[in-house]
Amino acid sequence: ATASTLMNHSSSRSHAIFTMEVVQNKLVVGIPSTLTARFHFVDLAGSEKVKQSGVEGEQLSQAININHGLFVLGKVITALSDGNQHVPFRESKLTRILQNSLGGNSRTCMVACVSPAASNLAESVSTLTYAAKAKEIRNKPVVNRGTACANCALLQARLDEMTDPDAYSTAPRALGTPAPLHLQRGRTALLEARNHDLQREVDALAQQNSALQSKLGVGGPDYQDRKS
Description:
By secondary structure, the chain is α+β, with helices and mostly antiparallel strands. It has helices spanning 50-53, 57-82, 93-97, 121-135, 148-163, 181-216, 221-227, and strands at residues 16-28, 31-43, 145-146.
């Protein structure tokens, strides 16, 4: 609801979340594949203290709920940036909805808006603290692909491999006798699955290496200065 407050004469203080889900179905080497993506567009309410805004009645109740969501969001951001084992996502509906965007399987962009007014200094500092802590969070986005059909093809390929080992033999075939199409697809599914597992291992090792280099100060400009 829109109503004036002592801090904003045309206030419409509220959280707004728009979610869009995109699903792409296609064939990959003859095997059905599903690629899904979800976009969250979030407009968070600004930081306002009840004493400064002077709200009453229903507006006061709304302001308390909004401030509670922002407070829990701050706790979640702090817990993720500090590497705590317990992250209080479930303490607020806002953080529960944004759970995947905070340290989960997503790419997240945050824009912090502050006020140039000296009277809003405390709110501006609080917002900048949010942003500084949020920068320390590291998400791990991966591709969401429906694997049911791919698993069926993989199982079928392994079944064919056990029943007809020669079909999957690495020995060269006679000229002009290519493998049947379903066996080609099965081999492709096997190779793609193995390649996916190897790629995940490489990504995990790269992240571990990057974290170790950051702790040791290796690779950065400070390290180059010390080395020289």
